[in-house]
Amino acid sequence: MTQPENWQTGGFGLYVHWPFCEAKCPYCDFNSHVVASVDQRPWAEALAAEIRRYAEAVPGRVLTSIFFGGGTPSLMAPETVATVIGAARGSWTFANDIEITLEANPRSVEAARFEGYARAGVNRVSLGVQSLREDDLRKLGRLHDVKEAQAAFGIAREVFDRVSFDLIYARQGQNLRDWEEELGEALEMAVDHLSLYQLTVEPGTAFWDRAQKGRLKGLPTEDLGADMYELTQELCAGAGMPAYEVSNHAPAGSESRHNLVYWRYGDWIGVGPGAHGRFSVHNTRYETIAHRMPGVWLPAAQAGNGDLSRDVVPMEDQAIEYLIMGLRLSEGVDLERLHNMSRSVAPDAVIEELTRMGLLRISSHQLKATLEGRMVLNSVIEKLVP
Ligand SMILES: C[S@@+](CC[C@H](N)C(=O)[O-])C[C@H]1O[C@@H](n2cnc3c(N)ncnc32)[C@H](O)[C@@H]1O
Ligand code: SF4
Description:
Elements: H1 6-10, E1 12-18, E2 20-21, E3 33-34, H2 40-57, E4 62-70, H3 78-91, E5 93-104, H4 108-111, H5 114-120, E6 124-130, H6 134-139, H7 146-159, E7 162-169, H8 176-189, E8 193-198, H9 206-212, H10 222-238, E9 243-245, E10 248-249, H11 257-263, E11 267-271, E12 276-281, E13 284-290, H12 294-302, E14 307-312, H13 315-326, E15 333-334, H14 335-341, H15 348-356, E16 360-363, E17 366-369, H16 371-375, H17 377-384
Parallel strand pairs: 1-4, 1-11, 2-3, 4-5, 5-6, 6-7, 7-8
Antiparallel strand pairs: 8-10, 9-10, 12-13, 13-14, 15-17, 16-17
Helix pairs in contact: 2-3, 3-5, 8-10
Bound molecules: S-adenosylmethionine and iron/sulfur cluster.
């Protein structure tokens, strides 16, 4: 039986990157830039023009999700968001249950814009709460305090159908007990979705420089990090918010549809500085990367194309990407779909060996990482990829 194309299996999403922030957090390596002010009209028009350009290349699709990521998309004026959503609506058919998410920093100025975003069509927000401890928010360089974040969360719950928030754990000076208490408070607060990330010290960040100079003290050891991860799985599952992905928790049906498009290796269009996209036309899959610097992207988009590159993704690379994405999910990857892309990725003998080691398991033709496997996912993938 022929399998459906990737976009039919995984859905079709639109990612919109807003690259500006009010301050640069010392741990963050996202494509975010601090500027005094932004004239948003040309940005709204350029993002809309990019969407229309893509609609000509990838016409006639049903859009499952839109995701405004950043940077800080909650610095966008509601009119800017409305212009972008309007361009998408004019370009593709919206699924009846389309999910439109905006990443927001949990401050009162941003919460004041929530109603405007909802009127523009946003129906889900993801709040960057990061920590429920004042000292740690300061260490993470955040501009909000705990009360302000909780207030923004309360407003978001009233305004939007769906609300998620992010926390970063395995922070400086944090022990297992501290995290247990904080996560307990987070689970009391959470409604339908929670993203819990272990702090990673990324090259090019202020934390990285501090770590190089030996001044980033008190980071948990690898063992403590692993214990924190296990505890996180346990507490979240117990509270009815099991992990559906390595760092993402939700009851069944409340998963982020947009993230599922990536992890199920569907098609998505990426617009805005540094945005990546993957989409298939006549069974050829393309990867697009937009110019990263805002000052380069804007004039390029205004001149008719904001992309730095568009390349064909060879079948074997598609298999590798699908494997890397899909093993993050608790539902795993469809082995038949994977092996139709390439027989040399995830050969049976290696799957058997990793299964014997308790790192993988197969159920209903889906290849899944076990909890132990998810904790060492990079080395599992290294073994599966030729
Ligand atoms: C694009 S960022 C944040 C969006 C928004 N500007 C904010 O700060 O809330 C998405 C999420 O990635 C997580 N994150 C970013 N850098 C991280 C790092 N170095 N380690 C762990 N999590 C990180 C944070 O939880 C953050 O909310
Ligand atoms: S974490 Fe968010 S607010 Fe901080 S620099 Fe990164 S994108 Fe901007």
